[in-house]
Amino acid sequence: MSRETFYIGMDLGTFKTSVMASNAKRSSLYTAVGWPRDHVARAMLGRDVIFGEDVVQQRMALDVVRPFNKGSLKYVPGNPEDATDIERSKHAAKLLVNHAVSLMNPPAGAAIYGVIGAPSRASIENKQVIMEAAQEAFDAVVIAAEPFTVAYGMDQLKDTVVIDIGAGTIDICPLYGAYPKDEDQVTISIGGDSVDECFLKLLQQQFPEAQVTLNMAREIKEKHGFVHDVNESAIVSLPVNGRPQKFDVTDSLKEACGSLVDPIIEGLQEVIAKFDPEFQSQLLQTVLLAGGGSQLKGLDQLVEQGLQPFCAGVNVQKVYDSCYAGAAGALKLAMNMPDDYWQKLENSGTLQQDAA
Fold it and tell me: CA 203, CA 224: separation in Å to the nearest integer?
């Protein structure tokens, strides 16, 4: 008797990981793993490994690893020089994937098949790391381009460009009715993390008396972030010598968030220029902004303005759900693949293939 099949779609992001399953469960968690710093922290937490919101809330008592931060393991060629750091990041990635799958409560004994999103132009080495991280949790897994999973989930596989703005990269992928080739796509090695770092630096320059951390800068960006020119203000409370004071961070926030706009337009120009000139305008019928960075207020309008010289009627829109759009598309792709394809992967022991 054949085993029950359980399908999973996963968007393994630099900052957050989203996962959905065929039993209608879904979850989102920080792409980070924490270990108690000492025996006191271990006794207080009652666990050897910490995931999810607890990593943020308890980070003072933890050694935290973000396995895909700053290009480590996944997003750009080359790894940290310290072999210990590499192995620790790989171990964290494996624990994270195992935990994300466990949150879906797969039935005991079921064959677990999944699709995991990877950057548009992830190298063979990058995909190998993801494969190794998934090895214990899945019976078979397909690695697909993250922008493709977004488009697949929204049935936007033709005359569309997806701009997936993550924490580590911006992936720009044209969809023209077939699975996109690597050379058609562009990956830019900046994202939400670089905005946070820029914003923190500007805050420290503008308000040297304020006490502010990278996490505080990120939280302000997520709540107030914008790039447009309309009347917008961001007034926040920051401690000065331990006492909260109000600061107008509008200008610094706009400058930091706006640092994404020119690279996005330049990346789009590069993608468009590569495309068959007879179909360039047709390709720009729809531009989808995905990923956490897509939620910056006014970004869709600025991208649309930047594309006017290429296509006067371009329509730039945000995905319906920036958190789960990639995972939903990955799950849909997994469930639509023929059973014999999955069984072939499982029987051959092959965990990774490119979606096609």
Answer: 15
- What is the distance between the alpha carbons of residues 287 and 150, in angstroms, rounded to a whole number? 12
Q: Select from 329, 323, 321 the least CA-distant residue to 18.
A: 323
Q: What angle do CA 131, 218, 297 make, to 5 degrees?
A: 100
Separation CA 93–CA 347 (nearest Å) = 25
The angle subtended at Cα 233 by Cα 228 and Cα 238, nearest 5°, is 130
For the chain, residues classed under CATH 3.30.420.40 are: 5-151+324-348, 156-190+260-318, 193-258
Least confident of 73-77, 100-104, 245-249: 73-77
Name the percent of the chain lying above pLDDT 70.
90
Tell me which residue of 336, 1, 341 sits closest to 155, measured CA to CA: 336
Give the count of alpha carbons within 13 A of 263, CB side only. Answer: 21
User: Under a CB-based contact definition with an 8 Å cutoff, are residues 52 and 66 in contact?
Assistant: no
Mean pLDDT of 23-35: 96
3-state helix, strand, coil in the chain (%, to 5): 40, 25, 35
Task: Pick 156-190+260-318's CATH classification: 3.30.1490.20, 3.30.420.40, 3.90.226.10, 3.30.1360.140.
Answer: 3.30.420.40
Reported pTM: 0.88
Q: Which of 253, 264, 249 is nearest to 302 (CA)?
A: 264
